[in-house]
Amino acid sequence: MNSGTPRRQVFRLSREQRVAEIMSAARAVFREKGYEDAPLSDIAERANVVEGSIYRYFENKRDLLVKVIEDWYEGMLADYDLQLSGIRGTRNRLRFMIWRHLSTIHDEPALCNLMFQHLRTGRDYSHTAVHELNREYTRRTLDIIKEGMAAGELREDVPLRLIRDMIYGCTEHRTFAYLRGEGDFDPDATADMIADLVLSGLERRRPDTPPAPDLAERLERAVARLERMTGPAAP
């Protein structure tokens, strides 16, 4: 017999929706508290789930961190591809990739620290999806260099891995103090300087041909601007 009392409807989220909510909550808590000081109970509370249910979708807190960084990288790569499709010219494309990397560090220092300090230093890093995504991330920059070589703009006798290390080693060195919470840096000026330094060493020209006059001026302006912002780089 119907008592006339309407039955309460229960809406259950799909697995994909639940995972997305937990990861969104985890990203926010990791940003605020770092990795070591981010208890799963806080993540569960923010995701409106019981703590034990997190283990239905993730092995442990580190697995959750890996998935959060993986999702972050996938979003960045999609954005890079979209924006690169509208940029022409070797210097413009390379400068964009360097600037975008620097801007990510500037805008997301907490997530970058999680990647650099907790994930990349782990013994299991090379076996994670993030490792392959990071290779895809840097491969886009090297593809621009290879396109410049194929077009005859850049010399081909410099190993691509060395070029990669020059670009990303330089960005990490320049932003290291900022990620420690010391000072600031200018992504625009830094991107100009790194792009010009890399391309000045790779451009095809006769050995007795000096660099273009405006290159030296751009470098001087970029260095001066950086020094005003951050002071001399640490050794």
How would you describe this protein?
With 235 residues, this protein is mostly helical. It has two domains: 44 residues, Arc Repressor Mutant, subunit A (Orthogonal Bundle); 133 residues, Tetracycline Repressor, domain 2. Helix content is 68%, strand content 0%. Helix 4 crosses helix 6. The C terminus is likely disordered.
Features:
single chain, 235 residues, mainly alpha, Arc Repressor Mutant, subunit A, Tetracycline Repressor, domain 2, 2 domains, 10 helices, 68% helix, elongated, disordered C terminus
Helix content: 55-70%
CATH architectural group of the largest domain: Orthogonal Bundle
Structural class category: mainly alpha
Number of strands: 0
Main sheet characteristics: none
Oligomer: single chain
Order of helices and strands: HHHHHHHHHH
How is the CATH topology of the largest domain named? Answer: Tetracycline Repressor, domain 2
Unreliable parts: 230-235
Instruction: Please give the domain count.
Output: 2
The fraction of residues assigned to DSSP E strands is under 5%
